[in-house]
Design goal:
Helices cover 0% and strands 47% of the residues. The protein is mainly β. It has one domain.
Length: 76
């Protein structure tokens, strides 16, 4: 669990390759980001780390497998 630098959002990452973006003030889920990452044998790789960009506009996550980095725009 991490708070965005601007304090508006809470990020919860799971072992199910899903990252939840929650509004810090009302507790409602704003977005659910699903990481579809495939490793060498074709199965989905786990999200191993996620964080906010310094301006709180993006979520960035890494994964196992082919060592992918994914960047999501929080608004879109």
């Amino acid at each position: 669990m991490k708070f965005s630098p601007d304090g508006k959002f809470i990020m919860l990452s799971t072992t199910e390759n899903v990252i939840f973006l929650i509004d810090s003030f009302d507790g409602k889920t704003k977005h659910k980001f699903r990481a579809t990452i495939y490793n060498e044998v074709g199965s989905s790789g786990l999200v191993i780390e996620a964080n906010f960009s310094p301006d709180s506009k993006y979520l960035i996550s890494g994964s196992e497998g082919k060592r992918k980095v994914i960047c999501w725009n929080i608004e879109t």
